[in-house]
Amino acid sequence: MLRAGNAALRQQVSALEDANDVMVRRIVELEKKSGRNSQNSSMAPSSDTGGESCKAEPYRVGRGHD
């Protein structure tokens, strides 16, 4: 009876280890994707989500056009 319980627990641990491996690979994939923007990939600039990836010309105050 105890051996049957051990076998079931070993199967469960194995299944959890497999699921963990899948999740770790997915996290790595998502972390790689999250660093992409139009500056370092073939994505369109309109797909950028703010931050430093959008480099607009700053508004200049000072000398006018003579």
Question: How do the helices and strands line up, and which of them pair or pack?
Answer:
Elements: H1 2-34
Written account of the structure:
This protein has one helix at 2-34. The chain has 66 residues and is mainly α. The protein has a domain at 1-36. The mean pLDDT is 79.
Distance between the termini: 95 Å
Uncertain ranges: none
Task: Using the alpha-carbon principal axes, give the shape.
Answer: rod-shaped
**Helix-and-strand structural type:** mainly alpha
Q: List the helices and strands in order.
A: H
Number of strands: 0
What is the radius of gyration?
A: 26 Å
Beta-strand content bin: under 5%
Please outline the major beta sheet.
Answer: none
Binned, the helix content reads: 40-55%
Put simply, the count of helices is 1
Summarize the structure.
By secondary structure, the protein is mainly α. It is built from one helix and no strands.
